[in-house]
Amino acid sequence: MRNLLKTSRRAFLAAGLALGAAMAAHAGEIRVVSSGGFTAAYNQLVPLFEAATGHKVVTAYGSSMGTAQDSIPSRLGRGEQFDIVILADGALEALARDGKVVPNTRVDLGRSLIGMSVRKGLPKPDISTVEGLKKTVLEAKAIAYSASASGTYLSNELFPKLGVWEQIKDKSRKIMSERVGTILTRGEADVGFQQVSELLPFKDIEYVGPLPEEVQQKVFFSAGLAVGAREPELAAQLVKFLASSAAAPIVKASGLDPVAK
Q1: Is the fold of 2-111+220-258 the same as that of 114-215?
Q2: Among 239, 256, 220, 251, CA closest to 82
Q3: Is a pLDDT exceeding 50 seen at residue 150?
Q4: Which conformational region is residue 99 in: left (phi greater than 0), alpha (psi within -120 to 50 degrees), or beta?
Q5: 2-111+220-258 in CATH: which number?
């Protein structure tokens, strides 16, 4: 995988350098707001794009959904200005309906799965089956879940459907404005659920695995052009890079299934 990533970076830079040479005199600033699911890949890809093109990318972060002060809907609602919005596909479409994202500009960057981690030192439960998942959450002492798309699915749909929500809701905590992995690292929960790409960067917790296939929510993390974007052409270039086949190994290593192969 390490050699594959090195090859990808070289290909990425080679493709970008040709574009960068033509645009060096027109280097600009691109403002992006991104949710956590694509962050691990994004943080590796953006420096490559900047090096290849000479453009500067300024980034803010927030959850895909919710009313927290730093959530993406809240940021856009109070008039913060961006060129690109990157978040879960359903939330992106909702922002388009609300007039915050330009319709029909959605570009899928990677497909995500919901995963589970446990606090370091705890045994890894078997959640490969639905019954195993139910047993795990019923026996857990404290559960943390994201306030964004994955957590909304768990608390509003999956856990009620499995018939366990009433038993676990009082020991479950929706995590606002920080990662579930941070909560597990601090020992404030035993079990945590979030997008796989948001759990993997935490090395002081134990990643268990994805939810069983039959109850898995498969969402895309997608990019869209923000209404009022000041650099729409440069934004389109960045999105094209993020969705490119050269970027795919980096996207995959972050825990996402890349759209480009």
Answers
A1: yes
A2: 239
A3: yes
A4: left
A5: 3.40.190.10
